[in-house]
Amino acid sequence: ELRPDLAPKTVARMKELSRQHFFDGIIFHRVIAGFMAQTGDPKGTGYGGSGQNLPAEFSTAHHVRGTVSMARAQDANSADSQFFICFGPTPQLDGKYTIWGQVVQGMEFVDKIKAGDDDPNGMVKAPQDKIIRMQVAADVKS
């Protein structure tokens, strides 16, 4: 479920990238068990993106199980195309990362994404879990 009420610019950009098939085939490159699964980097290294930074759209919403939020560097306005899905509540991220969506069904599949190394980085060795196709539900014809 998209949350344009929280992050209208981010939602618009993610819809645009989805419609361009930008995310199709992109791996989950950074996964920390019990914390989050990160994707959205076409290079699969954690250093790639679409080339267009987004302004921070922080809100009072909480990072709970299934929250979809933008990954970023130290600069609050450095989010691009990388995002993560929370495995559980992560209140330390509240008000510091742009929440733009919520998983409303299928978390059992997110839970099965291969976790990365135990070190704080969470990079996945030989990642196989990926986004097959990311679509905007309103565009899908039944």
Layout of secondary structure:
Blueprint: H1 8-19, E1 30-32, E2 36-39, E3 67-70, E4 83-86, E5 99-102, H2 107-110
Summarize the structure.
This protein has 142 residues and is of the alpha+beta class. It has helices at residues 8-19, 107-110; strands at residues 30-32, 36-39, 67-70, 83-86, 99-102.
| Uncertain parts | none
Query: Which term fits the overall shape?
Result: globular
Average predicted local confidence, pLDDT: 96
Structural class determined from secondary elements: alpha+beta
- Strand order of the biggest β-sheet: 1-2-4-3-5
- Number of DSSP helical runs: 2
Binned, the helix content reads 10-25%
In total, the number of strands is 5
The N- and C-terminal alpha carbons lie at a distance of 18 Å
H-E order: HEEEEEH
User: Which band does the percent of strand residues land in?
Assistant: 5-15%
Radius of gyration (Å) = 14 Å
Major sheet: size, sense and barrel closure?
A: 5 strands, antiparallel
Key terms for this structure?
142 residues; 13% strand; five-stranded antiparallel β-sheet; alpha+beta
Explain what the structure shows.
- This protein is 11% helix and 13% strand.
- A hairpin with a 3-residue loop joins β1 (30-32) and β2 (36-39).
- It has two helices and five strands; from the N terminus they run αβββββα.
- It starts with 7 loop residues before the first helix and ends in a 32-residue tail after the last helix.
- It is an alpha+beta fold and 142 residues long.
- Strands 1-2-4-3-5 form a five-stranded antiparallel β-sheet.
